[in-house]
Design a protein that fits this description.
Radius of gyration of chain A: 21 Å
Helix content of chain A: 25-40%
Strand content of chain A: 15-25%
Structural class of chain A: alpha/beta
CATH superfamily of the largest domain in chain A: Dihydrodipicolinate Reductase, domain 2
Largest interface: A-B, 61 and 61 residues
CATH topology of the largest domain in chain A: Dihydrodipicolinate Reductase, domain 2
Shape of chain A: globular
Number of strands of chain A: 14
Order of helices and strands of chain A: EHEHEHEHEHEHEHHHHEHHEEEEEHHHHE
CATH class of the largest domain in chain A: Alpha Beta
Oligomer: homodimer
Number of helices of chain A: 16
Amino acid sequence: MEMTVNVAVIGLGARGLSLLEMVFMEHPLVKIVAVCDVYGDRCKAAAEVVVKKGQPQPLETTDYKEVLSLPNLDAVLICTSWEDHISMAIEAMEAGIYVGLEVGGAYSVQECWDIVRAYERTKVPVMLLENCCYGRNELMLLNMVEQGVFGEIVHVAGGYLHDLRSEIACGQENRHYRLRNYLHRNCENYPTHELGPLARILDINRGNRLISLTSQASKSKGLQDYIRRHKANDKNFLNADFAQGDVVTTVIKCARGETIVLTLDTTLPRYYSRGLQIHGTRGMYNEENQSIFLDGVNDQDHFTWSKHWGNIEKYRKQYEHPIWKQYLEEGVKQGHGGMDWLVYADFIQAVQNKMPTPIDVYDLATWMSISALSEESIALGGHPVAIPDFTNGKWLGR
Amino acid sequence: MEMTVNVAVIGLGARGLSLLEMVFMEHPLVKIVAVCDVYGDRCKAAAEVVVKKGQPQPLETTDYKEVLSLPNLDAVLICTSWEDHISMAIEAMEAGIYVGLEVGGAYSVQECWDIVRAYERTKVPVMLLENCCYGRNELMLLNMVEQGVFGEIVHVAGGYLHDLRSEIACGQENRHYRLRNYLHRNCENYPTHELGPLARILDINRGNRLISLTSQASKSKGLQDYIRRHKANDKNFLNADFAQGDVVTTVIKCARGETIVLTLDTTLPRYYSRGLQIHGTRGMYNEENQSIFLDGVNDQDHFTWSKHWGNIEKYRKQYEHPIWKQYLEEGVKQGHGGMDWLVYADFIQAVQNKMPTPIDVYDLATWMSISALSEESIALGGHPVAIPDFTNGKWLGR
């Protein structure tokens, strides 16, 4: 019988609780030994889920330090407010505990260096749990890129294009950290969807690296307009000024010469998309119409392209990624279309085997640093800022 | 009977000749009195078209100065290489001749100032013949913006997304100016599709203005790859290095706080698109799937958007622009889906009535300056550059 993995969860807001219920408690090897949140009611609700699912009562605590001092803890999952992600991860690594870190952006370049140094000092792995790296389309397209279907890749794009107005506007009631971030900061605050998958397509930190970026934000009007129509009773909130621009566009240059356009669009009415685009010398993909255009195949339809919208499905059979082929055979588990299961299963497997994590500290630092760097660029009127080489040259040989 | 307008055409490459045949010779008020190109064979071919269509033999000349010294010339249409656009336009304006200028970008900010000053000195109107300002979808969406359907506009995007590899790679045989530009320059070389329509949506130079931009270019691989496969016999050309990056991304900030993302994507395999996006506080449009998402109307389909692809057609009846309503009733003329006819008809009407042109010298200077400014920003690693106020403050009151 395989050994179970003792796991604690810190941060039990909407994301943490739903992961607990739908992913962690469903994993045959995970034993939840502690649940922690600054709000006691959240701990209680989480512990009830654990017991209801048939596991023993876990430790309930509002003090994460108590969690990190538990004996026999194999891994901690950090699903807290963005502000605490990196510092808590470092503390856990220093306590010798594997860290699974939910996504978000960094607040300074320094904290990205800090976690890199913590890893290099302790050798305790940390994994950024970027579920979109396990998206079905993302993995299939990565497979196509690796097989050369699009030729040499020269430009990609992606974004977090998700209408979060009601979540943010209800941030007081829901105790959600996004509200204070949107009130006071202006940046690409959620870069890792879709930068994670794009970084894999472009071999970032493995033969390529992010060199510099420019970032610009539109004015901030979406939340104000929403609150005036939906929360007009709250007189204080009605006059709130949001620092966060509605649409933030960040353009990144890579060492090999590729450009990446990242878009954050979370406070305007829109459909959900991660806006993935791949442009190479032999073809392109655009998520907005889920179509693949290949040189020499689709040439006759330059001006009649709408008839090929959705043609990604035609390529499924040939290019489905092995990870998803196996997953489909075994039965896709719930959670963001199955991505959550895959990313957490990979993490748990690394913990169990005491192996490195597939998304490592250098990826984490590089991807998360984009928030701090875009904040800097926006504040400087779109001035280009350098993206540090967190590998200190190791990207050349990895 | 309405007076005819005496028109000369300078520049008779593919664009000039096809416009002559399909638009100018079809216009009931246009009399072509001269055709001019540096290549005599092009003049001859153009003159044959004029005669074949039943008009008298026009002057054929390779010297544009001869054209500008003609008596009774009402207007000149400049369809030459980009490099000559502005200087020739200025000479024509100084000769008192209305100028219709085909699209392209400027090579320096100074030449944009020069044409503004030429207009202010001579009061002779010039019109940038930006046909995309007359696109059916562009005008319908402008109509929707003006009626407030999308709420307050905060972000827009557009581009010139057109695979021109074969045109550029055959530039020697076809004597096409794009070839030398792509070999030696790296910039947003064709900004006015879709900046023209976007500028109208955002009231640029009429209550709003473009403030600054950053521009970044990807590496240049598309033409090289194409030439290796399609022109491998030409040993010199095979090793040509193209300065022009395959994809250029330019982000513009406006005085009222909107952002504009402009994309140039002309040397990779792809379908044609102008990539129009409109994002407001009440809704959005995306040309890639030709769909309109409206707040309070489409909310239930955030995650199932593909079923609404192409829904722009549902809005035709209600929001078709009056210009197009009339045009459809009268019968759409050929030429880029009818846009060419409309833009030239507007120009000819202005000439005939000795009125100002609907796209004027300030629009021309502002839109065309983006090429020179993006070249500067790219050369400076994406550094933000200021966009001059060519109106010197008149945008506040226009």
